[in-house]
Amino acid sequence: MNQPRDGGERTVAVILLGPPGSGCTSVGAALAAQRGGRSIDLAQRVAQHLGVAEASALVAVGEERYREVEAAVAVQTLQALEDGDVVALGSGCLGRAEVGAALAGARQRGARVVALTASVRRLAYRNGLDAPRSVALGNVNHVFTQMLHERDAQCQALADGVIDTTHTSAQEVAQALSSLPQRRDRLAGV
Q1: Cα(13)–Cα(142) distance, integer angstroms
Q2: Full set of structural domains in the chain with CATH
Q3: Please, what sign has the CA dihedral across residues 126, 127, 129, 131?
Q4: DSSP string over 159-178
Q5: Is the pTM of this model over 0.70?
Q6: Which residues of the chain have pLDDT under 50?
Q7: Any idea which UniProt keywords this protein has (predicted)?
Q8: Do 115 and 159 contact (CB within 8 A), yes or no?
Q9: DSSP per position, the chain
Q10: Which residues are CB-contacts of 69 (< 8 A; sequence separation ≥ 6)?
Q11: Rounded alpha-carbon distances, angstroms, from residue 31 to 17, 54, 94, 106
């Protein structure tokens, strides 16, 4: 990562990990606005690369192609990080070895990695899966819950710290993150 742009104190890059609905995009935008840095949303970059709408990108190109492009864009993004950048990385690409290597490289250059999490109920709500109990949604909810547990564990294992967003706004989480220590210690109490 580069030296501070204004010659002042270094503002570390922050990489946000989390399952769908944990708040990576909204927290990333709020934190970047507070710090005056760039907000980089991986899902948005992937959709732009694919030439499709972000909301339907995964469906438009299929999961295999989406994940392939997502991993390539994630690696490129992590390798080009600058001080002050805030990256909403999410969790879909974390199983790819090349992304793990790029994430490790970013950490070695001083980036902080924070996992966002929330209760399964809140994540289901944020993803539109909060309909009253329905036999038709039973399997979808089961698969979603399994995926959340797997990705949440993966995110937390890679992170310097974890923040539960169940009962907080993006601005509150960004405020908590705005005072990140400049050293790469574990984030106690965050």
Answers
A1: 35
A2: 14-177 (3.40.50.300)
A3: positive
A4: -SEEEE-TT--HHHHHHHHT
A5: yes
A6: 2-5, 182-190
A7: Kinase, Transferase
A8: yes
A9: -PPPTTSSS----EEEE-STTSSHHHHHHHHHHHHT--EEEHHHHHHHHHTS-GGGHHHHH-HHHHHHHHHHHHHHHHHT--TT-EEEEESTTTTSHHHHHHHHHHHHTT-EEEEEE--HHHHHHHTT---S--HHHHHHHHHHHHHHHHHHHHHHHH-SEEEE-TT--HHHHHHHHTT--SS----TT-
A10: 46, 49, 50, 61
A11: 14, 21, 22, 18
**Rounded-to-integer distance, Cα 175 and Cα 123, Å:** 21
**Burial grade of 46 (CB within 10 A; 0-12, 13-18, 19 or more):** buried
Tokens 């710090």 -> residue: 35
Q: What's the confidence (pLDDT) of residue 5?
A: 46
Positive or negative torsion for Cα 75, 76, 82, 87: negative
**Contacts (Cβ under 8 Å, ≥6 apart) of 130:** 121, 124
Calpha distance 27→39 (Å, rounded): 10
Two structure tokens written together for 146:
């399994």
The string of pLDDT tens digits covering residues 102-148 is 999 999 999 999 999 998 888 888 888 776 666 665 677 778 888 88
